[in-house]
Amino acid sequence: MASLDELLPEDHRARQVWQYVEGLELSRLYDAIQSHTGRAGRPAIDPAVLMTLWLYATLEDVGSARQVARLCERDVSYRWILGRVRVSHKTLSDFRVEAGGVLDELLSRSVAALASAGVVDLQCVAVDGMRLRASAGTNSFRRKKRLDQLHDLASEKVAKLRGELDRDPGASDRRRQARRQWAAEDRQRRIEQAKQALAEIEAQRAAEAKEQRRKQPANKREPRASTSDAQARIMKMADGGYRPGFNAQFKTTPPIGLIIGVSVDNNGSDRGRLRGTVAEIEQRYGQRPQQVLADSGYDSKTDIAALHEHEKGTVAVFCPLPRNQDGQVRPPRVNDGPGVLAWHQRMNSDDGKALYRQRFATERPHADMRNRGLTGVLVRGIEKVKAVVLWHVHAYNFLIISRLPRTA
Length: 408
Description:
Elements: H1 4-7, H2 13-22, H3 27-31, H4 47-59, H5 65-74, H6 76-82, H7 89-98, H8 100-116, E1 124-133, E2 141-142, H9 144-167, H10 171-211, E3 225-226, E4 233-236, E5 242-253, E6 258-265, H11 274-285, E7 291-293, H12 301-308, E8 316-318, H13 338-347, H14 350-356, H15 363-371, H16 382-407
Parallel strand pairs: 1-7, 7-8
Antiparallel strand pairs: 1-5, 2-3, 4-5, 5-6
Helix pairs in contact: 2-4, 4-16, 5-6, 5-7, 8-16, 9-10, 12-13
């Protein structure tokens, strides 16, 4: 016989994660607990325990709440984290998505502390995107005409079930009818969300056409929306295929590669995001970066010119210059402004090329998170997807921060 503490080695990763979580500011999670000493009811699970569980599980490539719950019953490291507490997969699943706001706040606080200590330099920021497979089938996307038909059928079924529920005197039959009614109302709600998503897609296309000075949108195909996840969009993935997904944008600090910002949306394009990147860093840390590194997908002349002539100071963009079909760099046009001309001059200089090469170190977070299972998500909705992404961000930053003393 031996205690769990004796079974777990002193240098085990679970102990390191627990020590790391103990140093985090979790008052927001504790304030949300409605459990009080001396009152009736089961005591709530300490948020630090749930935080440690999910952070450790993410590091161990475990992304399913049910799998974590099973490991908590038989694996020594998970049992050591829990102690004598028992946890269900429902509690784990709810905590993972509900802690998204706290995780986003903790990201800003931890990076700000490192920046004030001089460990991280926020003057140079690299940005890159990663497409994630959404929890929605390709066949769940419907056009407006079909959505209207499905909505009428769902409304009729809900009305019919409500009438049957009112007339049925049997308790067991009422419960069965209530479950059927809940399922019908849920489908009706998802169809209504899909119809709303169609309107948003049409408005977005009209806005893009207006910005590009087109009479009609460039994409003339009839828009479609998913009845499984209305916020998912069909986008091009890393393997070249088109599937429902979300676009996660990561902001890192070269050459360390620490993630200092993250956002998730359903826009499959990276173009036009440079101004948003600078605004996010300024909002999080109260200072603007002086240099932004990005790949060729971010080469929006509008963004580059706007950042060059910004009232709060010039932000230099380091991004590959556009090339023609022969692979030759396109020279600047006659009507290009000083911001675009300065961009060409930077990228044609040896110093500019040397600085841009630091961007390739920021590909490491993508590879690390994909190796830990972040290729797709099982949750639905942008906010929940961002919460899952933030768990991977904190797991990756934990590894980077733990190596900083040895590399200093």
